[in-house]
């Protein structure tokens, strides 16, 4: 049974002290971009379904 996402809320808190510490850690940007792309696609699907109603 597929899972349907009806709403997606993203909240990010940025702290200057931790932001400086995390810049030294290598982050896989490709994985982050893929997650963002998938989230945007889901949002588009949700908006399309709302308009169909």
From TrEMBL:
Pfam families: DUF5908
Name of the protein described by the UniProt record: DUF5908 family protein
Species in which this protein is naturally found: Chryseobacterium terrae
């Amino acid at each position: 049974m597929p899972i349907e996402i009806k709403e997606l809320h993203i909240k990010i808190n940025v702290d200057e002290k931790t932001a400086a510490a995390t810049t030294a850690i290598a982050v896989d940007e490709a994985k982050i971009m893929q997650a963002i792309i998938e989230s945007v696609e889901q949002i588009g699907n949700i908006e399309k379904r709302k308009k169909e109603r």
